[in-house]
Amino acid sequence: MIEIRFGSQVCGELASAAGREWLVPDGLGGYAMGTVGGLRTRRYHGLLVVPGEAPAARKVGLASLDPAVLLPSGARVRLGAHEWISGDVDPRGFELLERFDLADGLPRWRWRIGDVVIERELAMLHGRSCVAVVHRLISGGPVELELAAACTWRDAHGERRADGPPLRMDPVDGGALIEGAYRLSGPGWTPQGNWWRGVYHREEAARGLHPEEDLWYAGQFRDTLRHPGDTMSVLAWAQDPGPAPAPPPATEVVASARRRNREVVASAKPADDVEATLALAADAFIVRTNDTPVEVVAGYPWFGAWSRDTMISYEGLFLRTGRAYLGRELLRSYAATLSEGMLANTADTGRVEYNTVDGTLWFLHAVSRHVTVTGDTDLGDELLPALRGVVDAHLAGTRYGIAVDPADGLLTAGAPGAALTWMDARVYGVPVTPRHGKPVEVNALWINGLAGVAELAELAGQDADGLHRLHERAVKAFRDRFPTPSGWLHDVVDAPAPAYPLGGAAFHDDDLLRPNQLLAWSLPFAPLEADPRAVGLVGAGLLTPLGPRSLSPDCPGFTGRHRGGPAERDSAYHQGTVWPWLIGPYADAARRAGLPVDTLFTGLEAHLTEYGLGSVSETADGTAPHIATGCPFQAWSVAELLRARR
């Protein structure tokens, strides 16, 4: 894997250290997450964040475990870091960090206090909501080490305040049970029990959200480290509803996590260190939940499972990492959610919704790619009736006006207030880019899906003539309707005109330069031959070091900064913001057009050490220097970079 290591000039400078985040997942949708400098900059940061019934229904438990070293001289040196609503940062333990590294995907810190060096390692027990934190004396000593446990128990999207009830603490052997929900265990436990008021989260303030919470100081662990190599370990784990054995010792949890991560990388058979890093990054998004054997978390720290994201990510996460056996189960479980020809979009709401025009079409693509790559025709045969049902439902018409236009065989969609494509941002309930009519990528996916289902039907020995006729008609209409005089493709045709004079046209064709057209050249059964001039125009207008923008800077409505409060960010979300996942369609289209791609991934490879360490962000600013925004760890960004590089 690529080396991710920082010295004192990054670790000791607050903006640099707090702007780089690490993630350790538990395989269930929970995680430990924080920054290189140890400062909690988000409400979502914590050492034990516990998944709920759905991946997005997480709760923050153990917020931090702050070390303090008692030297033989009597001096007490605090190594933690907190920012307060007053503006103070205290303590400032990051100033004593001499190194941070991400080794086998696990974070490791080293603090130097004169000749004393203390190391911290952290890991989670895969398949269980349990974090292990190991401190080791590297040099110097003897020293006393204190670890102050700052706790909460709240929804990850909110905060808990001191004006509410204190956290319930029940004494247990070696520590405490907090709120009956999770347990702390380690040496020399001394309970405390008071509020730390006014903890400040700078990233939440930057996102226009409430930045303040109060933390409960539950108590401290204490032990003596006499000789180099001596360790002090703490475990925190969610209390299981039934009887369950205690976790293994913390040092074993760390060693086991390191071995597992190496095995994950080896099983992906990476071609180079970047691919190895991406293979491990992909592992974070594949989880098991209470309701399904396999699910995909769209992004950390705030997203849960979204069907569109899952299907776009499918090939990169499962087929490029040697996990087709898990992907097979995921496809079968998603097929069971089909209703009126639409795939459920389980999303983060905790309820099943059917509200995308493209999620189902990406599902057709994922099944087709699975069978093509693996040769698993048994799965193709099993799912074929459901896939034919999708085609039939789209021909007949389904929710939100989604239907095949009998006039040309293209797919149209739209309903008042709906945002059905992946460009689905809303501001005060109003879609920013509604894209009603016949969107270019939706119809490329429809054409691709028809060809894929026809191929599966033929593999099963079934008649596919009707599917071929539908495909041919849609391809002809696509080639007639979508090219523009400018050389690129319309983003939407037959779009309702926002306003028109009496006697004017009620519909128009939207020719804004957007990246959605890339799918018309990049998909396996793309409707168009990749034209070097057209793909080159898209690249010239949209490409950045971190991937294509969602709108050209030359177009009206372009917004170069994805910043501010929720309304400001959502207004910019698809109006110029960079989306790294689009590097996959762009790379495929460029290759097919005969354009060079040798240096296409350089910026994204460098990005692996800039924001979410070892991973790829959800979005970035559309204008230079293209600072990353959104989730630091995003499934389709990782999956498409992994797929496209290979």
From TrEMBL:
BP GO terms, sorted: glycogen catabolic process
Region forming the signal peptide: none
Domain Glycogen debranching enzyme bacterial and archaeal type N-terminal per the UniProt entry, residue ranges: 20-225
Source organism, top-level taxon: Bacteria
Annotated GO MF terms: 4-alpha-glucanotransferase activity; amylo-alpha-1,6-glucosidase activity
Domain spans labelled Glycogen debranching enzyme C-terminal: 281-643
Pfam families cross-referenced by the UniProt entry: GDE_C, GDE_N
Name of the protein described by the UniProt record: Amylo-alpha-1,6-glucosidase
